[in-house]
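Postdoc handover notes: sequence design on the structure in folder B. Input tokens:
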């Protein structure tokens, strides 16, 4: 007795076997390279003087889209104190874009939002608090060597009445690994 072979079922079985075999193979061999493009870094700062203390921590992470463009986020925390005058706690975050038109030059734009909590100790002002949000929009340029960039940035939103920085111009050292 001869059995009839259903050609449609055979083609369907063969197609499904090849399709799922290729799909499984592609999923096994395809490795995400996302973390290969992520770089961590940031800055640490400390300044001490006669009656003056300034300490800051600013971790950051960027994603390099290619050799020319990277974007990322950062956190910032700091403490500033001038003895017998005031103390301030600062905390917040930033968004940064880096552009490297040539290997040794880096151009940057950074939007920073910091919460400033200050308390005055100056005679006659004891106990007075000044708490506010400070927004800064920095544009900068620097010389880059390997994973370190030295440069200067300018705060386009610098306000002499509501400032946490003495000047609109600020030097920087940026490190990413």
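Designed sequence:
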């Amino acid at each position: 007795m001869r059995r009839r072979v259903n050609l449609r079922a055979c083609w369907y079985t063969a197609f499904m076997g090849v399709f799922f075999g290729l799909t499984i193979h592609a999923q096994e061999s395809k490795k995400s390279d996302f973390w290969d493009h992520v770089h961590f870094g940031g800055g640490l700062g400390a300044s001490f003087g006669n009656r003056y203390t300034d300490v800051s921590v600013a971790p950051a992470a960027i994603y390099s889209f290619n050799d020319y463009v990277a974007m990322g986020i950062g956190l910032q925390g700091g403490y500033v104190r001038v003895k017998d005058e005031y103390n301030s706690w600062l905390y917040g975050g930033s968004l940064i874009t880096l552009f490297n038109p040539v290997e040794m030059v880096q151009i940057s734009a950074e939007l920073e939002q910091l919460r400033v909590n200050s308390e005055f100790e100056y005679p006659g002002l004891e106990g007075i608090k000044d708490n506010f949000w400070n927004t800064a929009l920095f544009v900068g340029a620097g010389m880059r060597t390997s994973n370190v960039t030295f440069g200067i940035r300018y705060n386009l939103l610098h306000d002499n009445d509501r400032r946490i920085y003495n000047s609109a111009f600020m030097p920087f050292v940026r490190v990413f690994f």
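Context for whoever picks this up: Strands lie at 38-49, 52-64, 69-82, 86-102, 105-120, 129-145, 148-155, 169-176. Don't rerun without checking with the PI first.
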